[in-house]
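Lab meeting, item 3. Inverse folding demo.
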């Protein structure tokens, strides 16, 4: 049957064909993602180990992100403190402001904000860089010269993002707490010792572990998504732009899903 004719019964056949084609593409994409991740876990354990490239990528991901992370974290601490004060003042509980800030930033805002900023900056950078290398056939040239491009380009970047996002999260948390302290000190004249005593009194060891685990997962997700989109890009310069854009969107989407799932697991553990 010709799918383009207008005979009765043609439209349902066309719809079934389109639906099947979309499902096929989705399952093929999932299979490609699975093979890509499986190859990473296979390559990461065996030499050669690209230590110089890993250190270089740690510098690019971590050190070069510090100005943006510092400014964003400091502003978040001040803004969150300002927004929380009226609610607590209505109950005469402004003394609990340091505890509220610490719980919110350590448990959720620190890891999440750091991951979102890194997804925008690091994810797009990795996707565009590998995408341009793919469309200009630099990756093919590495394969011809007996160099393993997957280990050199993908493994090093995923490991660097997995290592550096937790470090950036700790730094963001500290800067945010510092911004919150300056705001609290300006309005309530709370001393630095009193502020951080209340901060550490409000959080638990489980909060710190959960924040660290989330940061590691977020870092792995950002690196893996950026590398996958860039490594498998095509269609010339248009593909490079799509790789950078889809790296950011996909990474942010997965980060929110992971945040929801991890939060449910931690709350279940906390309730035990």
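The presenter then showed the designed sequence:
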């Amino acid at each position: 049957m010709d799918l383009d004719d207008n005979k009765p019964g043609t439209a349902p056949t066309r719809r079934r064909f389109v639906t099947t084609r979309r499902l096929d593409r989705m399952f093929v994409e999932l299979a490609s993602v699975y093979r890509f991740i499986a190859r990473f876990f296979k390559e990461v354990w065996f030499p050669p180990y690209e230590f110089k490239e890993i250190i270089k990528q740690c510098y690019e991901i971590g050190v070069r992100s510090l100005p943006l992370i510092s400014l964003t974290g400091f502003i978040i601490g001040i803004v969150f403190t300002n927004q929380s004060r009226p609610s607590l003042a209505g109950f005469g509980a402004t003394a609990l402001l340091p505890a509220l800030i610490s719980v919110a930033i350590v448990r959720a805002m620190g890891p999440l904000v750091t991951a979102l900023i890194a997804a925008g900056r690091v994810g797009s950078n990795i996707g565009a860089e590998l995408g341009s290398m793919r469309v200009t056939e630099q990756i093919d040239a590495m394969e011809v010269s007996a160099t393993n491009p997957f280990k050199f380009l993908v493994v090093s970047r995923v490991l660097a993002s997995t290592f550096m996002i937790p470090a950036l999260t700790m730094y963001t948390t500290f800067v945010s707490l510092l911004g919150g302290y300056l705001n609290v000190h300006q309005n309530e004249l709370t001393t630095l010792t009193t502020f951080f005593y209340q901060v550490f009194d409000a959080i638990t060891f489980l909060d710190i572990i959960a924040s660290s685990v989330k940061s590691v997962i977020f870092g792995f997700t950002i690196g893996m998504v950026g590398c996958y989109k860039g490594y498998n890009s095509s269609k010339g310069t248009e593909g490079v732009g799509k790789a950078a854009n889809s790296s950011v969107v996909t990474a942010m989407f997965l980060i929110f899903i992971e945040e929801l799932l991890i939060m449910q697991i931690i709350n279940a553990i906390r309730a035990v």
